[in-house]
Amino acid sequence: GLLLALAYPDRVARRRPGGEPRYMMTNGKGARFDDAADPLAGEPWLALADLDGDRRDARIFLAAPLSLAAIEARFGQAIVEERVCAWDARESQVQAVWRRRLDRLVLAERRDATPDPGRLAAAMLDGVRAMGLGCLPWRPAHQLLRRRVALARAAQPEAGWPDLSDAALLDRLDEWLGPYLGGMRGRAHLDRLDLDAALGGLLDWEARRTLDRLVPTHVTVPSGSTVPVDYDGDEPVLAVRLQEMFGCAETPAILGGRMPLLLHLLSPARRPVQVTRDLAGFWAGSYRAVKADLKGQYPRHWWPDDPMQAEPTARAKPRK
Predict the structure, then answer these.
(1) How many CA atoms lie within 13 A of 1 on its CB side?
(2) What is the number of other CB atoms lying within 10 angstroms of the CB of residue 136?
(3) How far apart are CA 32 and CA 14, in angstroms?
């Protein structure tokens, strides 16, 4: 066996786990016995002399037993000790191991209880890339931030707003996500990821202030209510009860007044009764027909003839 190993060092082989007589060689290729009853089929280590040349799983025609002690004694200088952290897609977690190997043949391996933190984080990043950004614990607030930044970026391409698209986030994964993966080893650990801080790190304090001013999450309407802006669709929408907009001629806008919001004016039951970007035009035009319809459905609410002179209210009627 040792003579064959010296003649064919790339054919030193170790039996794979399992019942089949299959082997892994130092060159990384596989080999097998066709007959499980072959006298050598149970040997843990072999030196292979004659194969059929099949690159994937060659058939063994001639071999001799070999011992691990002989391998280590004769090839000791070529044996490498290493600590490896790698993403295991099947288990959805990082496998951290210490191993000794001869070329591509693993001679010994055990779990590494104290992996290098940097390598552990790098392997977790590989896992996130493999699984996609959907594996992160996204909440509606995170997606809202991304849409608001995208809107600001489109409106002000020269302002240096960060690109928070999926492609850009994956490209810069090491930069924004890596520092927050400390101690994590698997997909289940991502549930405790502080995604607020990770995404927030892409915007400094001044950028946050500017974003809140230009692309706010909420708008204060004439009644005094603070109403959320919906950025889910192709354009920002402000859904507000019609009575809360009395007295207002100017359509609420974002981006410093450059983008009027699409108003969904709602009934008291919060059903849309008018969609418009021209609030003044609505008061002067179709309000009369909408008022007649709402007055019939909600007679206890206040529907003034002149909405521009009326007091806005979040109640059925203004306070006396």
Answers:
(1) 18
(2) 17
(3) 11
Residue 116 has which token pair?
């290098």
Whether pTM > 0.85 for this model: the answer is no
Integer CA distances (angstroms), 237 to 141, 209, 247, 272, in order: 17, 21, 20, 12
* Count of beta carbons in the 10 Å neighbourhood of residue 47: 24
List CB contacts of 193: < 8 A, sequence separation 6 or more. 136, 137, 180, 181, 184
And the tokens for 297?
Answer: 């459905």
Q: Do the beta carbons of residue 196 and residue 178 sit within 8 Å? A: no
Q: Is 244 exposed, middle or buried (0-12, 13-18, 19+ CB in 10 A)?
A: buried
Model pLDDT, residue 320: 66
CA 80/CA 103 separation, integer angstroms: 8
What is the per-residue pLDDT across 12-36, written as a single tens digit (0 to 9) for each? Answer: 999 999 888 999 999 999 999 988 8
Which residue from 5, 56, 68, 8 is spatially nearest to 32, judged by alpha carbons? 56
How far is Cα 30 from Cα 11, in angstroms, rounded to an integer?
Answer: 10
Distance CA 48, CA 65 (A): 9
